[in-house]
């Protein structure tokens, strides 16, 4: 559902999100509404009144969301430096070069 909101980049009602979902198995309108409300309660979405319904909008870009999730995942590592080292080792050369460039080392 976040993907639909990111791709559209606009405020969408649950019905509009439901119409745009492209899933292997269909989900019901009530499920879409429930997920949007849960994401809003977690602070991932903003919402505002739109007629008789609410419209939802993402609070973060897709990239900000991914970065936050990466940090949350690293937070559960018993040895964060080792987890980071394994992550960096698995990166492509281009990704490592990009990190180096952003850290000012290249």
Description:
With 106 residues, the chain is mainly alpha-helical. It is built from six helices and two strands, in the order H-H-H-E-E-H-H-H. It has two domains: 2-58, Orthogonal Bundle (Arc Repressor Mutant, subunit A); 62-102. The longest helix has 14 residues, at 62-75. The protein has helices at 2-8, 14-20, 29-41, 62-75, 80-90, 93-102, and strands spanning 45-50, 53-58. It is elongated.
Could you give a short description of this structure?
This protein has helices at residues 2-8, 14-20, 29-41, 62-75, 80-90, 93-102, and strands at residues 45-50, 53-58.
**Which outline best applies?**
elongated
Order of helices and strands: HHHEEHHH
Q: Predict the CATH topology of the largest domain.
A: Arc Repressor Mutant, subunit A
Rg, nearest Å: 18 Å
What is the name of the CATH class of the largest domain?
A: Mainly Alpha
Which percent band covers the strand fraction?
5-15%
Number of domains: 2
Q: How many beta-strand segments?
A: 2
């Amino acid at each position: 559902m976040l993907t639909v909101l990111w791709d559209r980049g606009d405020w969408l009602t649950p019905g509009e999100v439901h119409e745009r979902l492209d899933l292997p198995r269909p989900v019901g309108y009530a499920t879409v509404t429930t997920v949007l409300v849960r994401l809003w309660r977690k602070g991932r979405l903003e919402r505002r009144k739109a007629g008789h319904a609410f419209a939802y909008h993402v609070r973060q870009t897709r990239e900000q969301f991914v970065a936050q999730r990466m940090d949350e995942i690293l937070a559960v590592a018993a040895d964060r430096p080792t987890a980071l080292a394994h992550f960096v080792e698995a990166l492509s050369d281009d990704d490592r070069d990009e990190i180096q460039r952003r850290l000012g080392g290249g």
